[in-house]
Amino acid sequence: MIAKHKNINPKRRVVVTGLGVVSSIGIGVEEFWKNLIAGKSGITEIEAFDTSEYPVHKGGEVKNFKPEQFIDKRKLSHFGRASQLAIAASKLAIDDADLLQKDIAKAGVILGTTMGESQILEELDKVWITHGEDNLTQGLITSYLTNNLSVNTAVELGATGFNAVMPTACSSGNYAIGYGFDLIRAGHSELTFCGGSDAFSRIAFTGFNRLMAMAPDKCQPFDKNRKGMMLGEGAGILILESLEHAEKRKAKIYAEVLGYGLSCDAHHMTQPSEEGIVNCMEKAIKEAGISKEDVDYISAHGTGTPQNDKIECSAIMKVFGKMYNDILCSSIKSMLGHTMGAASAIEAISCCIAIREKVVPPTINYDTLDEECDLNFVPNKAKKMNMKVALNNSSAFGGNNACTIFKTTK
Fold this sequence. Notes:
Layout: E1 14-23, E2 26-27, H1 29-37, E3 44-45, E4 58-59, H2 81-97, H3 101-104, E5 108-112, H4 118-131, H5 138-143, H6 148-157, E6 163-166, H7 172-185, E7 191-198, H8 202-210, E8 234-242, H9 243-248, E9 255-264, H10 274-288, E10 297-299, H11 306-320, E11 328-330, H12 333-336, H13 343-357, E12 359-360, E13 383-384, E14 389-396, E15 400-407
Parallel strand pairs: 5-6, 5-7, 10-11, 10-14
Antiparallel strand pairs: 1-2, 1-8, 1-9, 3-4, 7-8, 9-15, 12-13, 14-15
Helix pairs in contact: 2-6, 7-13, 10-11
């Protein structure tokens, strides 16, 4: 992804040394992981706005998030909720990685998002409709800019390195990880903050409802009776470091990033393409320098919509052939809901902890086998496994697919 691809050193190893997460099932890696392997659902009645006129009233809303615990109260008004979530997850990752400010100062910040600061856009619309366009302030307008997500995070952290937002919707977290991976291998950075953030908003909720993609009560990825996705919110941040830098400061290491794959299948605005997902996984496996037989676990995109799940399963079967059912799979969206731009970042975090703890999180709400989705989905209860390699799938509107691969360093 870096323009000067020839500068990338394939022998320069990249590892994950810090994780930060804000989600509907927990804030911080300890609470998140405890509830994830317990199969706890974060789907609740929505409180952010009135849903009485919608057919669906539940989602993966983060109820106990207090931004003032992470950001000075005097600054809070300058940041939309998506930025607040990203900053909080980044600071949690810093604590987890035991980083000093000198380590952070030259770090890059690469974040993915679907909606950006959508709650600020809602406020813009409200002011315009209620008071007219002449009452739109410059501060409100400039606060909506999508690049503010990474800029606000970098400014708050004091990170002066490469800064970018990946707006590739629901695969953007994986895109950000891939970009950060390349930055380090190309020698442009020793450390990067990578991940994604999206906040719950009426705009996103309305959009997915209009697409008739929402389930009424629960998300059931790959289950025969699945009825759709559940919208969620949150942020996930991974701290990537060169192995040399991590070893020099004696950092703990969760996993090694082996590589990534990207594809834009240009098939349909909302419908996935089996060929595009196949190409994405195969590119990731090739770049990682592993064989298909090396993959122990797949963190599936698994939204719970009938067509998406079916096509992802078909793609996995095509890539892995007869061995597909030997690989454990799960979709943590069954617990968190679909956190949009944060989804694949939080799922990457799950992969890294799963590798370290040797436990595969479950797919909850899985009751009935769908013969067209006949993979090994770790139904309802976590499973112990001596995992070495995890593959993290993600797909997005517009045919944007991204896959990252992680490996134990032991």
